[in-house]
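note to self — DONT lose this again. spent like an hour looking for the file last time. sequence + predicted structure for the chain T wanted, 206 res
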Amino acid sequence: MARFHARQHLAAPHLLPELSAERYDQPGQSGAHLGPAFGRDLDAAAHVDEIADRRGSRGLGLALVQSLGDRGAKVATFARTITPELEALAAAHPDRVHVASVDATDSKALTAFVKEAEAKLGPIDSLVNNAAIGQDSLHIHTSPAKIEQIVATNLTAPLVLTRTVLRRILAGPGRGRIVFVTSICAQRGYAGLVAYSSTKGGLEIG
């Protein structure tokens, strides 16, 4: 499994595509990427077919989906709210892009999304965990409910989704890639980001 800091991705967006470049050099291979990008090409290695991406609706997630799509990958992605940009991508590439509105903290909805992605694009061999919610409050002013929401979205959800995808990869292609987009906050402390930094640190330790 690979981990990249969000700032590294923004500074060098080519890093992620290079992870699966080997797949594009293999004649006769096809697939998709899954995640906040799901599919057979998004997070995978040599035999990437489909890549999945969590939260590909805007920002870095949208850029990842677009970049992978430009390279010919099949990509499945979800977000709580589907943006016009995602709708346009799906409409332009109905055979290579699958989008859905999914709550990342709903494990049943995640499993259903993975099944839908595979039914439309084929077996998943890659996953990019990119979804997260931020924080802008001192820890003493952050409610327990907010802390639970941050942990559920930023840490629990990617672990649950990764488990689901790994089981399918092992039962299918047998090889693939899992990518976690973390943050510099996982290594350095910043005021007002205690809960957020803790979740990103959990992904790096895992």
